[in-house]
Amino acid sequence: MKLKYSIIISLVCSFIYSQNNYFIPGKEWKDTEGVHINAHGGGVIFVSGTYYWYGEFKTAGPEGNTALKGVSCYTSKDLYNWHNEGIVLKVEEDPNSEITKGCILERPKVVFNKKTGKYVMWFHLELKGQGYDAARAAVAISDTPKGPFKFKKSYRPNKGIWPMDFKDEFKSASGNESNLKSWSPEWLTAIRNGMLVRRDFDKGQMSRDMTIYVDDNAKAYLIHSSEDNLTLHISELTDDYLDFTEKWRRVAPAGHNEAPAIFKKDGFYYMITSGCTGWDPNEARSFKSKSIWGPWEALGNPCVGKDAELTFHSQSTYIFPVQGKKDQFIFMADRWKPDNPIDGSYIWLPIIITNGKPVLNWFDKWNLLDFERN
Ligand code: GAL
User: What's the pLDDT score for residue 176?
Assistant: First the structure.
């Protein structure tokens, strides 16, 4: 009898002990099976009482930066404890598939389309063996949030379409731009004036680091690093979220922004981005606008305190609202480990708006109750 009780007590204790009650940024984050969560460059949505976290499933060793499995999904009721739902978009064995095993598949983001009742996943795709040259946006679709997602297509957005309000005078090159020295003031001016938009006009605009944002009126946008990562593009999606409407605009031309993440509060759109230093961290930037189409006002580094100049050794990936809590947003970022990508960790921090600017403070350990107290 005694033995029975002690087994039950130890099971209850181990259950309580294994529950996560806090976010501990940058540390190992065990799923409900005790394995470090594997969902990098991810995004989170909320569906009928459950959060879904989608991300890049990385594997050990440097080749783990390429997609050898696909996109993973985890579910949670409380944001601390996540159950592994497996791979919801699988890379394909067929060497001719655009998402063949060994391609680069980054920053998957899933959104729900109310009109079609489908879950739509967008991600950054690089074709196998071509480095980061393809720079494509890719889309997959599913009937349920747990997948399986079916790959539809990948391409470069806005082929043959000028951005909104692009001046006629910039639709053709002025002088001999191709010989300008990179980063010279003349070169920067040429970039701002659309030199790379013109270069990519016929083949479509580049789409590398990206996010998807769904507005209150259900319009959705792909926000993507384009023009050799020098300029962000905001491209409106069609009503089914499977294509582009041809309405697009440039943000911060020649500003060199990657890793965009967006949220909206009190009628203002806020965007947090990073600079461009590959897997190495750099200083984050923030922007604010009254309209998704801009003008976006640059507000500088949202991080404060120790290691603020390196975004606490991480790079932004997504921002989402906590359900049922007014104005609580969580900033998600990745601390990459390119030599053994599976060890990459997650930096989740609360965002507060102070004096009209987003602010990110570091916490070694925090939970949503701390958030409420602030
Ligand atoms: C980062 C980017 C990552 C990945 C990496 C490759 O700047 O944000 O998603 O593409 O470069 O070096």
Answer: 81
- Interval 196-248: pLDDT, tens: 999 999 999 999 999 999 999 999 999 999 999 999 999 999 999 999 999 99
Rounded Cα gap, residues 319 and 332, in angstroms: 6
Cis peptide before 157 (omega within 30 of 0): no
pLDDT computed for residue 13 by the predictor:
45
**Residue 345 CA, ligand 1 centroid: distance in Å:** 15
> Is residue 66 within 6 Å of ligand 1 at its C-beta?
no
Which residue is closest in CA terms to ligand 1's atom 6?
278
When the candidates are 3.40.50.880, 2.115.10.20, 2.40.160.40, 3.40.50.12710, the CATH number that belongs to 23-155 is 2.115.10.20
| Averaged pLDDT, 281-310 | 98
- Would you list the domain boundaries of the chain? 23-155
In whole angstroms, give the CA distance from residue 86 to residue 70: 10
230: exposed, middle or buried (C-beta count within 10 Å: 0-12, 13-18, 19+)? Answer: buried
pLDDT digits (tens, 9 = 90+) for 14-63: 454 468 999 999 999 999 999 999 999 999 999 999 999 999 999 999 89
Return the pLDDT at 7. 57
Cα separation, 370 vs 356, in Å, equals 22
What ligand 1 atom has the least distance to the C-alpha of 104? 10
C-beta of 98 in contact with ligand 1 (< 6 A): no
Q: Give, for ligand 1, the residue of 40, 123, 211, 258 to mutate: max count of ligand atoms closer than 8 Å to Cβ.
A: 258
Q: Which of 315, 317, 334 for a ligand 1 pocket mutation test, highest count of atoms within 8 Å of Cβ? A: 315
Give the pLDDT confidence of 91-104 residue by residue, as tens digits: 999 999 999 999 99
The strand pair at 50-56 and 70-76 is best described as antiparallel
CA of 135 to the centre of ligand 1 (A): 12
